[in-house]
Amino acid sequence: MNELKLYPIKCPQCGAPEVVREGTRITPCERCGATLCLTEVHSPRYEVTSNLSAAQAASAGRAWMERQGKVGIFGRPELVFMPFHEVCGRRVGVFERRVPERHRVYKERYDPASGGTVMEPTYEYTQKEDTKVMVADVEHMTPAARAPWDLAMFDARAARRLAPLRAFDLVEAQRRATVFAEEQSPDATAHERFAKKDTEMVAASGRTLFFPFWSIPVQTEAGSYEIVIDGVSGNIIAWRMPETFRIPGLAWAALAVPGALALGQALHATFLGDAFFDPVVLFVAGIIGTVTALVRSNRPDWQIRSWPEAGAIPRFERSES
Amino acid sequence: MSHRAAGPRVIVLRCKACRTELPAASHDVAFRCPQCGRAWEIETGGLIERPSYFVAAPSGVRQPILYLPYWSFTIEAEVKAAFLAEGDELGARDKAARYKRGWVAAYSIHRPTYVGEWGAAYTRINPKWEVRSGHGPRAPGATISGVDGQSIVGHYVLGDIDRKADIGDLDLDLEVGDPELWAIPCYDLGEVVRCPWTRGELPAACLDDLSEIRRALERREA
Predict the structure, then answer these.
(1) Where are the alpha helices (DSSP H) in chain A?
(2) Starting at the edge strand that comes first in sequence, how are the strands of the sheet with A35-38 ordered?
(3) Residue B2 has pLDDT above 60, yes or no
(4) Which one is predicted more confidently, B18 or B2?
(5) What is the distance between the alpha carbons of residues A294 and A121, in angstroms, rounded to a whole number?
(6) Chain A: closest CA distance from residue B75 (Å)
(7) For residues A224 and A75, what is the distance between their CA atoms, to the nearest angstrom?
(8) Which of A22, B17, B106, B156 is within CB 3.0–4.6 Å of A5 for a Cys-Cys bond?
């Protein structure tokens, strides 16, 4: 999907050969000046420009590491372009839905004061079939490739507003970055997402935006991990880092010993009947102690985290120069 | 991915009738010829002609006028039978009978149902316009196709009738005619554009190509 496509075309008016890039729809003929229009075009692709250099990305990552109280050796930051599909259009359709409807009904009730029956109003709720006509705007931005990190909390719309766009040149981009391939076209994304049984997308336009991310490898005593930084805002969007626990794994393993003793005591009391404590309490305490110890001591010393805590997000401050 | 042997089809954007070059922005799919006023829409086979009309600007107005493109369609809506309360049925019949023509804005608007789509308003109120054809004002190209406009205007009408009575209970016959490209004037007040008939205002920022449209019109007038 990611090859750079150049289409050779011929001006129908003067016959001059031209070469147009994928996504170009209207272009002037360089020889005769006629306005040429390509009737079948692929969706255009743009790159979201980044002013964040590798050094600035590393600096943002280092500041975050310091705030976390972690130590590591930073590797060379790698620029990664991740494709997103921006789909706009209008969704129209007619569909059935069920809406609740309230009816007032009267029921007979015995009245002890008069000794007879009185009619008392009450309400009954039913489901009513209703036909709904939909004409709605669609503006949707979605990742077009499976990223190695969780992008759920990356605000692509905000990043899109922060940075200008420029035409995406795959060959040039691949010289300086790793470029992820689109898994399908924007039209397919729009169809998959919005064209349902009763609705269709009309006046749809889609384009692919390549967002920059800095991936920084970090070497720590526990192994090699990475931090991912948004190339537009400088926010850390994902990381995989060692996580230290206040209580070491050995201490949790030590908890298993009294847990096992309590279990043994409970079993002894059940079968032989000479308990020092209540066997049920011993049994519950033993189970809790043993399971907690086993779970905590087997937990890895790192976790994949996709979004830092609110106070831990280092903000990139742009220098005036 | 396989390469296609044949490249995309290329057409010259030139009025087939008077050979004038058609003004085209990057997303335009239909154009009004600035010389003879004919309308042309891009189809896979080339340019096909659409009926073209424009609305005369209100007279005696000092504000700068900007013509915007709309798709217009004749509409025949009829409620034949219904299983509703009498009032609802009559309301729906009256409503359906009122529709004679529908419009859809053919220029790019950002969030049209939020900021207001004047085509939907014109469809509801059916303004009495002085409609002309032939050489007239210069107008930017349409960014949505006539077929898409046809689908949207049908849903405008259905939605409006549905407000009166549930269309699921109506035997409704709706026919939407072929697309016609209209140029309808509005006042260009800088930060907003104002409709002369409804007095509705549209922020200039939500018209995607307005700066490009203004530049192109000024250049041509100069």
Answers:
(1) 54-68, 156-162, 170-176, 186-194, 249-272, 279-298
(2) A26-28, A35-38, B10-12
(3) no
(4) B18
(5) 63
(6) 17
(7) 10
(8) A22
- Strand runs (DSSP E) across chain B, as ranges? 10-12, 30-32, 39-43, 46-50, 52-55, 65-82, 101-105, 131-132, 170-176, 180-188, 192-194, 201-203
A318 touches chain B (CB under 8 A): no
Interface check A136 vs B, CB under 8 A: yes
Contacts of A235 (CB under 8 A, 6+ apart): A229, A313, A314, A315, A316
Angle in degrees, 0-180, between the axes of helices B118-125 and B146-164, rounded to the nearest 10: 50
The 3-state DSSP class for residue A72 equals coil
Please, what is the end-to-end C-alpha distance for chain B in angstroms? 48
- Tens digit of pLDDT for each residue in B20-78? 888 877 788 899 998 899 999 988 778 899 999 999 988 887 888 889 999 999 999 98
Strand A78-111 relative to strand A178-179, pairing: parallel
Give the pLDDT score at B146. 94
Beta strands in A112-154 (DSSP E): 116-143
Q: Is the pLDDT at A303 greater than 50, yes or no?
A: no
Whole-number mean pLDDT of chain A?
A: 80
* Length of chain B measured in residues: 222
* Min distance A15 CA to chain B CA atoms (Å): 11
A 10 A CB-CB count for B163 gives 12
The reported pLDDT for the residue numbered A151 is 81
Burial (Cβ within 10 Å: 0-12, 13-18, ≥19) of residue B2: exposed
Gap between the Cα atoms of A11 and A34, Å rounded: 8
Residue pair B39/B49 in contact by the 8 Å Cβ criterion: yes
> What tokens appear for B114 in the block?
């939020």
**Given CA atoms A131, A135, A139, A144 in this order, what sign does their dihedral have?**
positive
CA-to-CA distance for A167 and A164, rounded, in angstroms? 10
Both tokens assigned to B63? 């504000």
Residue A179 sits at φ, ψ, to 5 deg, of -110, 120
pTM over 0.90: no
Give dist(CA A284, CA A276) in Å, integer: 15
Whether A313 and A154 have beta carbons less than 8 Å apart is answered as: no
pLDDT at B83: 64
Burial of B87 (0-12, 13-18, 19+ CB in 10 A): exposed
**A275, A265 contact by CB (below 8 A):** yes
Choose the mutation target among A27, A38, A92 for the interface with B, i.e. most B CBs under 10 Å.
Answer: A92
Using the structure block, give the residue that is written with the tokens 């014109």.
B122
Select from B10, B73, B153 the residue whose CB has the most chain A CBs within 10 Å, as the one to mutate to test that interface: B10
Asked if pLDDT for residue A320 goes beyond 60, the answer is no
Query: How many CB atoms sit inside 10 A of residue A83's CB?
Result: 22
Q: Is the ipTM of this complex over 0.85?
A: no
Separation CA B139–CA B132 (nearest Å):
14
Cβ <8 Å between A35 and B12: yes
